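Lab notebook, bench 4. Still working through the backlog of constructs that have no structural model yet. Next entry is a single chain of 888 residues. Request: give me the structure tokens for it.
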Amino acid sequence: MSLVKRIILFMVTFCYYAEIKKNTVGKISYYNIIFVRAKKNFKKSMHQFPLNSKRNSNFEGTKRNHNIVKYESRKRRHFFLNSRVGEKKGQSEIKRKIIKDEDKYNIIKDIKKYCECTKKYKRLPTREVTIGNVKIGNYNNIAIQTMTNCDTRNIEECVNQIKKCKDLGADMVRLTVQGVQEAEASYHIKEKLLSENITIPLVADIHFNPKIALMAAEVYEKIRVNPGNFVDGRKKWINKVYKKKEFEEGKLFIKEKFVPLIEKCKRLNRAIRIGTNHGSLSSRILSYYGDTPLGMIESAFEFSDLCIENKFYNIVFSMKASNAYVMIQSYRLLVAKQYERDKNSLIFPMHLGVTEAGFGANGRIKSYLGIGSLLYDGIGDTIRISLTEDPWDELAPCKKLIENLKKRIFYTDKKEEASYSVMKKQNKEGPNYSRDTPNNDNDVTVMKSSLSREIQSCSPEKKEEAIIYKSKENSTVHSDTDVYQTIEHWNSNYLNFEENFRDFNNIVKNRVDKKVKSDVLHEECTVGNVVTVKELEDSLQIFKDLNIELDQNGNLKKGAKTTDIIIIDKFETLTDSANKTVKKLIEIGLHVLVQHQPQNIDIVKKLKINDSSSSYNNNIIFYTHLENMDNILEYYKDEMQKNNSKGYALILNGKENIKMVEKIKYLDPAPLFLLLRSDTIFEHVLVTRRVNEIIHSLGINVPYIHYVDIHSTYYEDILVNASLYVGTCLIDLMGDGLIINVTNYSSAATNTDTVANAQKDEKQQISSRVSLNSFLTLNILQDTRIRLFKTDYIACPSCGRTLFNIQETTKKIMKLTGHLKGVKIAIMGCIVNGIGEMADAHFGYVGSAPKKVDLYYGKEIVERNVPEEEACDKLIELIKKHNKWQDP
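Model written out:
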């Protein structure tokens, strides 16, 4: 650096130092940070200068203005997000908002209504869109999609993959079209398919190049465009603060490039998917809204408004993110905004997906959680589960998700038609999907939406006859008479509530007594398990299943994954060997829940640990049903006075009347927590929403833990049921813990479809029923971002752009880094799904050229063109350099 430049830098620093110090003593500084990059010898050094924001525009040496400024205050990280709130003489003023780190994506203030109803199933009415020979929206079947992962120029391989996907149930297949060669190859692919009479609609995936989109429209039935890079080019992460004039000029540029595609698609009867991705928003949008759900919506609306302006309505929306919570909130906000825009017009259909979900159970759980939560409330017209696996492997999970959604329970209003949940072509088959997927559950499968319009509208004396006729058509495990009675029971007794506390903007979570949290419950979210006496007799296996660790001296200890509480089934049959295991678990710090009954009380009183019965009893918590609270209350008044117990727990099934629940508020001593155990998992979301509303409205400050029984025998069914019906509750912060009890593992283990469908690494983790419970509980809490226990991966599903073997690479990286709690690693096949999609990641592993990899720290590239065989080692070195590494 020259002497002159050094002097200038020194003078700039000195001139503003006094002013900054004067204005920042005792308060927060509202100054932008300007980074000035020195040349040549100091190319990599960054010099930070806090400058007054009014002078930024006059500082010619500015490389970039950061509109997100982090600072530390009382050991808590906050963000300043710039948002434009007004205009004055062509200039836009900037107002800074302080937002907590964990609330970064909660800056949604406009969700008043995001679906038709949250208590009764009513599918969101959307416009009908035609994609080749497939119609979506307007109550048509939910369509299943996947994407080829071979080079589009490889015509033969593309055709083979498309044919296989079609045979296995895909409704449409997407291909990447990144250049002229791929566009030309697409003609030959289409020609070859038509020669074999295969007419499955094809979707072109377009990034960066509007001209290629015009070429693709000649062949493909639908064109997917990404608003973040369709006209803005490659992402450079320049955080420029746009003036109003500059922002509007950007819209004109979009119009110039996008309208020709609209006109062509309109002429050729093509469809367009406006597919926004959380990680690839344009710098214009980031400047105004940040990388938030609101930014995703506004980005999509810039493109959809042009379609509407040109009277083109054959469009589909998508709001994908690798973070399931962000994805759910984005779709909810999208619906809410469309409701506000035109209350008399239908909403455009939506394609659902959690992008870069990963592979195996991890990818499935995250997708079931994100997609299933929206489908549960009637949102969604097409879906794709993006797995880092072969394209056809994505189809079975899609079918399984839709099939299991048929079993969910809503209540039915007799005055309304049941047809709101039934699509035009499916009045006899169920709410969402017409494919024949076998039902392998032993649960009472209650489907309100399987009732046809005739059953709802006929007279009471003829209802039973109609239902019996209907049950012959559907031939489900249980008769529709049982279905109808269950729904009527719900309708008349339990659904007289309105949701006021789950407001979708600033989700309310009960404030729990800190003493209860520290003494019994985990500070983030409690992990529970259900064990039998027989399972306790094998102490080594149970320690492994409950994720108990060893310290340096070989002593047992609790770790990040260790279960917090266990429920012992049939405690009255406790044997000596099982008792020894229980004592060890209590010594480690686990709490044991035992049903409150005379026989169990006598057993507990006789037990001792370390020659002290009080310390043993202190970690044993009795529980009983709410209707039996008087008996347990009398017992605990004496025991708590003797300091022999921390307290008790009560079980609810969610159907108790409000007066009964209100008694909890006045209990003395109050219960430590509640166990919410629905009669069947298929009604658990509805039960939770009711209970959550009641306890908030009554001001009951008692935490509640989800306790669900899963009677399924197939691995995929277990994954779906656990993720969908519990994850939907936890994603809205309803609940303070989770206990999953898979009841039929022994029979499932002998079934070739159960554990055989799990990945090799997963089989090692689910070697028993208890370990399967732990595996499900921990992964659901991880994907809801409530309690992190391992590395979080954003793994590209791969496509024709992928520059290395992403499936094998992902497995290798996961094996090396899977123990890093709270660390996020993005593994991307190319630049499209690289820096753009990995907005949340700490570290990035991105394909840059064939068998070459770029490594990122956050959004900054740190090493270019690393040979693939060296990249994993370099990644670990990078993690260590930034103090994120922990020895396994």
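Notes after review: The chain has 28 helices and 30 strands. The chain has four domains: 3-51, 136-407, 526-784, 792-882. Flag for follow-up if needed.
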